[in-house]
């Protein structure tokens, strides 16, 4: 089955090759956390769904219940919330080979406090609520996988909170560049400024003061 | 075996009764999350250790590796960190029937970013690193318990972060009173102010503006 790639219009791509690559990426990630055998993988991977989003598309909106976990295979997502003045605050970027959702909304089926937007044309693998809970029970180490992913998610939030209090804007900027290499080339600067919780003017000053290689 | 209670000097208490009450509280909490049978409980509960701390005692210091999870049976703990000016910021209060540790430090064996201090004479049950990891493997639903506790911990951090951005100081104050009833009578006001991320003057104004019942 041949399909036109949504992003690369001058190139015809094999949909199944795309899917295989995505699934292989997820399997590698999962296998780095738990032991998963071929039989389990065959059963589990049949439930994944591939989806593509256009640049700027909103894929989760504050107030909706998050029904999916998105695994980013290609592209970049921005996770943000609205502050008390309804100003967008960028919380996180989900780059290739990482997960994105409002985890609390997804797990508790409560209205999402975050929105998610594609920063580039983005290809994700979708995991449904059923699939995740089926995985907890059905995989031999499913609950362990759930625990490790919850812990990883927790470390992310804990460090984000501490950074805001304990690091200077320059330190947060350096930390961001380590976490998300090339993010400055991929995302408009006002989103970066809102991620760092500083003004765009302050961000420009930091960027201009960096030594050029 | 009769022991003098560390906190109530005019009363002789049975150490084992104390321990039994603490263990029953933990068992009730665990049983609300997973199915645990008598055999599992007998094996697991034998590893708990009871410890008492005096008011104001520091029980975990920034920079140490957190070797234990504390389950508060009686009393109150304050979890705090130091901001970039070395000022103490209160992050959380662990009241009766809740857990406290630097979870990341405990799980990853890295230096703790938080300190923990007893706000009152406090009685805790201690779980060691070995015990927690043994529980993940040894209990039929140990990994599920680990997952649910990691998720709960994550919700706490996620909401704390969002509150700082999305709620007014008054809203944060009301939220705190729901989470920690009577906290105002138990903790000096400057710790409350630092929990709410406002000045002590601002906190006094909020308290004085509350309707008196």
Strand order of the largest sheet of chain A: 3-10-5-8
Q: Indicate the low-confidence ranges of chain A by residue numbers.
A: 1-12
Topology order of chain A in helix (H) and strand (E) letters: EEHHEEEEEEHEEHHHHHH
Portion in beta strands of chain A: 15-25%
CATH architecture classification of the largest domain in chain A: Sandwich
What integer value in Å does the Rg of chain A equal?
A: 18 Å
Provide structural commentary.
The structure is a homodimer of 213-residue chains. Chain A has helices at residues 15-31, 38-45, 103-108, 129-138, 142-166, 169-179, 183-186, 189-196, 200-208, and strands at residues 2-4, 12-14, 49-53, 58-60, 68-74, 77-82, 88-94, 98-100, 115-118, 122-128. Chain A is an alpha+beta fold and 213 residues long. In chain A, the strands form three sheets. Chain A has a four-stranded antiparallel sheet. In chain A, a hairpin with a 5-residue loop joins strand 6 (77-82) and strand 7 (88-94). Mean pLDDT of chain A is 89; it is low at 1-12. Chain A binds chain B through residues 81-84, 89, 91, 103-104, 107-108, 113, 136, 141, 143-144, 146-147, 150-151, 153-155, 157-162, 164-168, and chain B through 81-84, 89, 91, 103-104, 107-108, 113, 136, 141, 143-144, 146-147, 150-151, 153-155, 157-162, 164-168. Chains A, B: Keywords: Kinase, Transferase. Chains A, B: GO terms for molecular function: kinase activity. Chains A, B: This is cAMP-binding domain of CRP or a regulatory subunit of cAMP-dependent protein kinases.
